[in-house]
Amino acid sequence: MSIRKPPFPRLLLNNVSCMRNGQQILSHVNVTLHDGGALVLTGANGAGKTTFLRMLAGFSRPSAGEVLWNGHDIQKSAIFHQYKLQLNWVSGKDAINDKFNVLDNIQWFELLEGKHGKAMPALELMGLGRLAKEKPKMLSMGQRKRLQLARMLAIDRPIWLLDEPSVALDDEGVKILEFIIAEHRKQGGIVIVATHLPIEIEDSMLLRLPPRFPRRMSHPDMLGRDMDIS
Ligand SMILES: Nc1ncnc2c1ncn2[C@@H]1O[C@H](COP(=O)(O)OP(=O)(O)OP(=O)(O)O)[C@@H](O)[C@H]1O
Question: What is the DSSP string of 87-103?
Fold first, then answer.
């Protein structure tokens, strides 16, 4: 009888540290993610949530440890070329082209991906179907976020890196976000979310990054003091 080795986790952060601008931001982080897995990153402002996502996206190199995708170090260029095609990144910088209309903003990315046909259904799902022919400058902040999420759905890559995805979304928008995350995971996708806002993601791992500059005084102590910032 042959014993099959367990498969590699899809993503493994193995004792990873990361510097930014000469400062240690992340120290000795270990995370294992299999298909369908989800990780929620929380922590104070400046704790390193975006740095974590940037590192997974390959924008920052780990200063120690390694990020493995299917058991391969993403820093190796041949691996990175394949790995980056797995990623979908949503952040505060929305990369929406104001010269294109809403629909074209998605179809342009679909064209680059060699995919087509999902732009309009994705807009409908995100509640933007009636705005498809409008210019993005007609959209509110929350609608722009919905457009980003629609683009992510249409492009349909397996690993979602979401930096504060629910900022500017109304309650319905958050529910749709939670729904698309759950559906993506059912298809075997992986979702990593950095957030300050509550979000319901079933069976997700939670990683709370420690504050980098802990306060010497608690908030109630500070609020009780006379304000003197001179
Ligand atoms: N562009 C940058 N260049 C150099 N260092 C940076 C840069 N942006 C952030 N940092 C440093 O990295 C640290 C972590 O920042 P990061 O954006 O990862 O935190 P965060 O947890 O996402 O914060 P927030 O909750 O405010 O979004 C910051 O404290 C800052 O010192």
Answer: EEEE-SS----TTS-HH
Binding site membership of 115 for ligand 1 (Cβ less than 6 Å): no
Tell me the residue length of the chain: 230
Ligand 1 atom closest to Cα of residue 194? 22
pLDDT in tens, 132-153: 999 999 999 999 999 999 999 9
Taking Cα atoms as reference points, which of 22, 19, 39 lies closest to residue 31?
Answer: 39
Verify whether ligand 1 is closer than 6 Å to residue 188 (CB atom): no
The one-letter amino acid at 143: Q
Asked if residue 25 has its Cβ within 6 Å of ligand 1, the reply is yes
Residue 180 Cα to ligand 1 middle (Å): 28
How much is the pLDDT for 165? 97
CA quadruple 111, 112, 118, 123: dihedral sign: negative
Residue 197 has φ and ψ, to the nearest 5°, of -95, 150
In tens, the pLDDT along 163-211 reads 999 999 999 999 999 999 999 999 999 999 999 999 999 999 999 999 8
